[in-house]
Specification:
The chain is of the alpha+beta class. It has ten helices and 18 strands. Strand 2 (100-104) and strand 3 (109-113) form a beta hairpin. It is rod-shaped, with a radius of gyration of 63 Å.
């Protein structure tokens, strides 16, 4: 478990590595200090003692041998070293010193006692040879008895030899003190190393952990964040680079999403158009199949002279009528195809809506008169819209013919033109009939007829209102059909917004 956590956590690895490095560094440092302390201490003591001996020699030179005792005592007290003065004859010199060599033991050690005589300190020499009388000594200095020099006293023809030996017990005491302090130093070093490793690992890995979390959010395509890094080192530069990259990716992603939405919308529109085209062609083939079958049957019967078809004049007239309906259907289909493909240009010019409706009423007046229907017109002059007069005339004509064809005899056809809630509008209402509620939403679909029997005597091709909708859509107008108390009303409302740089509708003063 611990190994897995260490393997998955950069902070834990850096903590352990840093703690181990600090512990090793502390241990090595302590070992080097313990190893180097004796030799370093000896070198320091020897150098210091050498300087003191040089000063002592300067003070002793030219002094009488019997007067040098106080100088030697001051040197021994200040330096803590043992001094032994041997005369030219090889005998211990009498210096009247209160701190002097008193005897030489058989175990080759020299004993120095203080003037009070209450203590004695023994210093080891490598070789001390005593003569039988005990008054002559020959000294061979070791590395610890580091200094020997000649001193010329006043009134002597030969120099005396001064032997100075430093105290080396302090060296061993320092090593023992370090050994005794080692456990406590180890605990302090461990605590210090763990604390430093914790602070260091958190300081190093905290921004990396934050950047790792940010990278994870970026992998989830979440760019709504900011590092807010203020450091001036490479980590800070990395954080600021991530901020800039996130902003750019967020912008690019939003643009891509918008483009995808637009593309999906276009694809859906294309699919809808394809569906509508397929439905249109299926319905067109169905609509054309019936008159073609009728026409074929009539012509075959007349050619073969079968039954009622012997009256050729009668059925030739009917065939001509069928051909006329087919021609009208084909013309409507061609008009719709041109409108869908945009091959029919839509002119943008001011059109007086009331005058347009009046002209169309004059052209279509014969149909309601034949059916015994009454036309009622209420047209407000000066209502101007922008568009194509011929196309708008065809739309108004389709609305008038539908109103007449789907109304009974002695019905009223009411036409109104004016402003409706500030917008140019035209309404056509026919009385004496109603449309089923479930049929109202489908009236502008191609080949749809509210008459479920699809009888030619009671309904047209089903393309009239579909063509009206296409024309009005290109003029920014909306057409609605609803049942009223007296009958059915078709209302056309033009938008007041500009279309193609010209106002869609307005009032001419």
């Amino acid at each position: 478990m611990l190994r897995k956590r260490v393997a998955e956590s950069l902070t834990a690895r850096i903590f352990l590595i840093t703690a181990c490095i600090l512990l090793c560094a502390g241990g090595v440092t302590f070992g080097l200090i313990a190893w180097a302390t004796p030799s370093t201490y000896t070198a320091v003591v020897t150098d210091d003692l050498t300087a003191q001996v040089d000063t002592l020699v300067e003070n002793l030179t030219g002094t009488a041998l019997e007067d040098c005792g106080p100088i030697l005592d001051d040197f021994i007290l200040s330096s803590g070293a043992a001094a032994m003065l041997v005369g030219p004859d090889g005998q211990l010199a009498d210096t009247n010193s209160q701190l002097a060599v008193q005897s030489v033991y058989e175990d080759d050690s020299v004993v120095i006692t203080s003037s009070e005589g209450d203590s004695a300190v023994t210093y080891a020499a490598d070789a001390v040879d005593a003569q039988d009388g005990g008054s002559t000594v020959a000294v061979t200095m070791s590395e610890q008895a580091a200094i020997s020099t000649e001193v010329w006293f006043a009134g002597q023809e030969a120099p005396c030899t001064l032997y100075v030996t430093p105290r080396m017990e302090a060296e061993n005491l320092a090593v023992r003190a370090l050994a005794q302090m080692a456990p406590w130093l180890a605990l302090v070093l461990l605590a210090f190393s763990l604390l430093c490793a914790l602070v260091y690992s958190r300081y190093i890995t905290r921004p990396i952990v934050r950047l790792n979390g940010i990278a994870g959010r970026m992998a989830e395509l979440d760019f709504h964040w900011s590092c807010g890094e203020t450091r001036r080192d490479e980590i800070g530069q990395l954080g600021r680079s991530l901020d800039a990259m996130a902003r750019r990716l967020d912008t690019a992603l939003r643009e891509l999403e918008a483009a995808n939405q637009s593309l999906r919308g276009e694809v859906e529109r294309e699919r809808e158009l394809d569906r509508q085209r397929m439905a249109f062609f299926n319905a067109a083939s169905h609509e054309l199949k019936t008159p073609v079958t009728i026409l074929k049957g009539q012509l075959s019967g007349m050619l073969e002279g079968v039954g009622v078809y012997r009256d050729r004049d009668k059925y030739l007239l009917r065939s001509l009528q069928v051909t006329g309906r087919m021609e009208a259907l084909v013309q409507e289909m061609l008009a719709i195809s041109r409108m869908e493909t945009g091959s029919v240009p839509v002119r943008r010019e001011p059109v007086d809506l009331a005058a347009l409706a009046e002209r169309q009423l004059a052209l279509d007046r014969e149909l309601p008169e034949q059916r015994g229907q009454r036309l009622v017109a209420d047209l407000v002059p000066g209502i101007t819209v922008t568009g194509d007069a011929s196309l708008l005339g065809k739309a108004v004509g389709s609305l008038l013919s539908n109103a007449s064809l789907y109304s009974p005899e002695r019905a009223e056809i009411r036409v109104w033109c004016g402003l409706l809630e500030g917008c140019p509008a035209l309404t056509v209402e026919n009385t004496g009939t109603h449309i089923r509620k479930e049929a109202l939403p489908h009236l502008f679909e191609a080949f749809y007829r509210a008459e479920s029997s699809r009888n030619r005597a009671t309904g047209g091709s089903g393309l009239g209102l579909y063509l009206v909708k296409m024309i009005l859509d290109r003029h920014g107008a909306v057409c609605t059909i609803e049942n009223t108390a007296d009958g059915v009303r078709a209302a056309v409302r033009f938008s007041p917004r500009p279309i193609g740089g010209l106002p869609a509708g307005g009032v001419v003063q």
